[in-house]
Specification:
This is HAD family hydrolase. The protein is an alpha/beta fold and about 220 residues long. The chain contains eleven helices and six strands. The chain folds into two domains: about 140 residues, HAD superfamily/HAD-like (Rossmann fold, 3-Layer(aba) Sandwich); about 70 residues, DNA polymerase, domain 1 (Orthogonal Bundle). The structure holds magnesium ion.
């Protein structure tokens, strides 16, 4: 089986984490929920539903399904408004090109839905009709469940066992461990090295550019 490179999107290939944080912050505020920005940041990268439940537990508030759906919709709208100028992280475009050149299979698996992922994919030059891209809409459970990565590997014709999951959040690393993949952490989403390592990252790099420089540490030189 080929070793696949399964990428998270926000904070891993695209510099969009703080836009998401701000969009959630504004959406929550509209519901009268005041939460410090850092508390929101801690949960970015997990599924929107889980995310909302965990945040609201922290503020000790019960919430119904309609409110969660409304929050999710408002977050998506605010994110699109805030994200006209979202840029790829340094080295992201080059890294994907290099993997393609080396014939190493890669895919993107994001907890975001296509409505928020589309502009991010565009910024990194990925056409979801041509590359393998799995979004929240396409699996039952999002991170920290491993379904997104399992589905991405399946579409590449391989499995997650021994493949790499590259992500910026502890939710990516937990999902990696749960599907037998090796977690590679990037600092570009704002999580610290220690947290990523504690949740299973075997290597941690600054950003995609730093990973590209050290690609020979993890990439098999030839395929068999
Ligand atoms: Mg992320």
């Amino acid at each position: 089986m080929n070793t696949a490179f399964l990428f998270d999107l926000d904070g891993t290939l695209v510099d969009s984490v703080y836009n998401h944080v701000r969009a959630w912050h504004l959406a929550l505020r509209e519901e009268g929920i005041e939460l410090s920005v850092w508390r929101i940041h801690r949960k970015i990268g997990m599924s929107g539903g889980l995310f909302t439940h965990q945040l609201l537990r922290e503020v000790g508030r019960e919430i119904d399904k309609e409110t969660i759906d409304r929050l999710r919709k408002r977050h998506a709208e605010k994110f699109v408004e805030l994200s006209e100028d979202v840029a790829p992280l340094p080295g992201a475009v080059k890294l994907l090109k290099e993997l393609t050149r080396l014939e190493l299979p890669w895919a993107i698996a994001t907890s975001g839905r296509m409505e928020t992922a589309r502009s991010n994919l565009e910024s990194v030059g990925v056409d979801p009709d041509k590359a393998v891209v799995v979004t929240r809409d396409q699996v039952k459970y999002a991170k920290p469940d491993p379904d997104l990565f399992v589905e991405a590997a399946r579409r590449l014709g391989t499995t997650t066992t021994g493949s790499y999951v590259i992500g910026d959040s502890i939710w990516d690393m937990i999902a990696a461990a749960r599907c037998g993949a090796l977690g590679i952490g990037l600092l570009s989403g704002g999580y610290g090295r220690d947290e990523l390592e504690r949740s299973g990252a075997i290597r941690v790099y600054d950003d995609p550019a730093d990973l590209l420089v050290h690609l020979d540490e993890i990439a098999p030189r030839t395929r068999d």
